What does this fold into?
Amino acid sequence: MAEQPDPDDGPAGADAGDGAPQNGDAATDANTDSDGSEHSDADSETRGESGEAAENERTTDSEFDSDTDGDTDSDTHTNTDSDTDSDTNAVGDETMPEFRDREAGDAPEPAAADGGTGNPVAGDDPAVGGEPQPAVVDDELGPEGPASDEEMPLADHIEEMMRRLALVFLVAGIALAVVYPFASELINYLWSVHIPEPTANRPRLYGPLEFLLTKLKVAGLAGLLVGLPMFVYQSYRFMRPGLYPKERQYYLASVPTSLVLGIFGVLFAHFFLLPRVFGYFSAYTSEAAVIAFGLQETFNLILVMMGWMAIIFQIPLFMMLAIMMGLVTRRWLEAKRLIFWGTFLGIAFLFSPDPTGLVPIIITLTMISLFEGTLALLRWTGN
It folds into this structure.
């Protein structure tokens, strides 16, 4: 439908609204031109105002961006790095709300001792409220050693160690002196037990001091048995200031255990190892020659085997002490077992007096059995 002409416009307004050719076209064109110029002026004014508003907005944004030193847009309210937390972001001498929230959110958490997580912000002052924050300590026993642990000069440590070793040798020497008068009876007993046909094969002396030296060696075996637990005890006294109460209990319990294990080692050599060794020596030479057992060489083998077994039987004790004190773990020992086996073999061949290889092999197997037996016991107990 065609628009109804406005009465106020007159014929020219009707002609312009209907778009039909009427009389007075010139007047209509004039009116149209004037209306167009008016609309054009209004549009230009509107565009000018919009441009000024946009320019003002851009100016405000650039000023705000320069105040925030390159931070992200404030409309997104994203957190910035801790390096810009200390910057002052103010507009009209008033801090922006989002920056107040961000500064409050980035405050360092209270220390663990105050009920917090104990994770301070990097670069913050360790003192909060004028009070230093306590250090976070992972070790439940504390950041320092026991109260009795005092630093000493190295020379004092060496002097104390030498003094305690002297006590060990003194106690072993006393045991040797006590057993020495009975050394002849011990020699006859060991000879009659381990040497076949003792009447026909009496010990032969090939030097004037062989018998005296053999008596000292037999008595020295008693000194070794007494000296082992004394050595463990003196090592405990040397390390006692740096040990915690539980570690002291372990060490004190190891002193009698060391003596018991040493006696078991001597008995193992006497009743199990030495009879088989001498039986082997007699068997492989019986068809070609008769063995003339010399006193010194024979007792060198007997005493070395007994002394070795007394020391070797300390392996379980040392392993348990190392694990209880946290020096090693069972899994670490299991992972390094081949290294230990090779070490045992090298030690056995290095210090064994038997050139045939039988004694070193027996010693190596004994050491491996003690090592693996201790690991099996630890697995069984769940340690």
About this structure: Strands lie at 127-128, 131-132.
